[in-house]
Design a protein that fits this description.
The complex is a heterodimer.
Chain A: E1 10-17, E2 21-23, H1 39-51, E3 53-59, H2 60-69, H3 76-83, E4 86-89, E5 101-104, H4 108-117, E6 122-125, H5 129-137, E7 143-149, E8 157-158, E9 169-176, E10 182-188
Parallel strand pairs in A: 1-6, 1-7, 3-4, 3-6, 4-5
Antiparallel strand pairs in A: 2-8, 7-10, 9-10
Chain B: E1 3-11, E2 15-17, H1 44-56, E3 57-63, H2 64-70, E4 87-90, E5 103-106, H3 110-121, E6 125-129, H4 131-137, E7 145-151, E8 159-160, E9 171-178, E10 183-189
Parallel strand pairs in B: 1-6, 1-7, 3-4, 3-6, 4-5
Antiparallel strand pairs in B: 2-8, 7-10, 9-10
Classes of the chains: A alpha/beta, B alpha/beta.
Chain lengths: 189, 191
């Protein structure tokens, strides 16, 4: 019996308000508190994750937003975002002006298993909310790294709302950062 | 606030173990003398350096390889490398076998491990134990000091202390002290 070939993981890295929202209703995320003292330590964890990333996958909206925001950035994070290979899922947009970006109109359940089967470092998703939900709904997320932010928004775009069935997860790591958020790392049971 | 310090004994050619290190031979071929300055060749000056390190140590961050090579019977026994000092192990998978409760396993990276170690260390030192975790933490700007004890030996191979970097990291020398068994060097990382 041959053993199953090792696949690269798909890691979801997102922030969430204490009451479970990934963004305000209008999609803004001005509540993240990135300017708090010591926020740089958590940003180093993001830099570390990007250094271990082989591919970014994005939904249509995140793809369009980031294709606007990142190309002009020369920060360390920007360098990763611009040089890493990216796949954007959209049935309406066919092309994006962003280096190393490919747009696909295939569904996540068709495309993502193939991407995972390719050699390389792990695949990372930074959102947004509805794209994360569609990945989760098809059981495609191998690791959830959720930054629980010290804020209750009251309203917004819920993270992982409306899954077809409950997903049982196991907490494998929990890091309380000096600037307030707690990164909870879960893997599917 | 806790300082993050990498404190390692290295050969002149920069190896922290010899070739073929394993659980049976944790130092690798020909590298037993790397730690003689702490034990059989220790002078009062060497002992003072060790005591200062132990007195200030609040937590340890190590890689999975250090853990697997040394934990348990025949290695660190029922504790860690430094008694009850809490140890945070950077790993891809938490081990399923039992281990002493001073160990915490972190699967989401060295930055996360160091942040968890800060809670345990308080104002004391977080020691980075192992070349790999140091090589991961250094380019992320997470290392405050590097202390190397250069042993007069050329090992010719083994585990290198340093790896390639994307850009230069400037250091300020804070200590030079030569004893018969080691040259003790300290550097502060200029952020």
């Amino acid at each position: 019996m041959s053993s199953e070939p090792a696949q690269r993981k798909l890691i979801l890295y997102m922030s969430m308000s204490l009451d479970g929202f990934a963004a305000r209703r209008d999609g803004t995320m001005d509540w993240l508190g990135e300017a708090q003292p010591y926020a740089d330590r958590r940003q180093r964890a993001v830099a570390e994750l990007l250094g271990q990333t082989g591919l970014l996958v994005l939904g249509r909206r995140a793809g369009q937003d980031m294709a606007q925001a990142w190309p002009s950035s020369h920060s360390a994070t920007g360098k990763y975002m611009n040089t890493l290979p990216k796949v954007v899922f959209s049935s309406t947009v066919s092309d994006l002006e962003w280096s190393n970006t490919r747009v696909t109109d295939r569904s996540v359940q068709e495309e993502v298993p193939e991407l995972k089967g390719q050699p390389g470092k792990d695949i990372v998703v930074f959102g947004g909310a509805s794209f994360a939900r569609s990945l989760a709904a098809h059981g495609l997320i191998d690791e959830y790294r959720i930054n629980v932010q010290p804020v209750a928004l009251g309203d917004g775009l819920p993270l992982l709302h409306g899954l077809p069935e409950p997903q049982r997860l196991e907490l494998v790591s929990s890091t309380a950062w000096a600037d307030g958020p707690i990164t909870q790392t879960y893997v599917p049971r | 606030m806790a300082r993050v310090i990498c404190d390692m004994s290295t050969s002149l050619d920069g190896y922290v173990t010899g070739p073929n290190d394993s659980r049976e031979h944790p130092f690798g071929d020909g590298a037993e003398m790397l730690h003689d300055w702490i034990f059989k060749a220790a002078t009062d000056e060497d002992r003072a350096i060790v005591q200062d390190m132990l007195d200030n140590l609040g937590a340890i961050v190590m890689g999975r390889r250090s853990f697997d090579k040394n934990e348990g019977d025949g290695g660190w026994g029922d504790s860690g490398p430094v008694g009850d000092t809490p140890c945070f192990v950077v790993t891809h998978h938490t081990p399923t076998r039992t281990h002493p409760p001073i160990y915490t396993f972190i699967t989401d990276g060295v930055a996360s491990a160091i942040e968890q170690a800060r809670h345990a260390a308080g104002d004391k030192v977080i020691g980075l134990h192992g070349a790999t975790v140091m090589q991961q933490a250094l380019p992320l700007g997470l290392v405050d000091e590097i202390r190397v004890h250069v042993i007069p030996v050329l090992l010719g191979g083994g585990t290198p202390l340093f790896s390639t970097l994307d850009s230069a990291i400037r250091l300020e020398r804070t200590r030079t002290l030569a004893t018969p068994a080691a040259t003790h060097l300290g550097f502060r990382v200029v952020q």
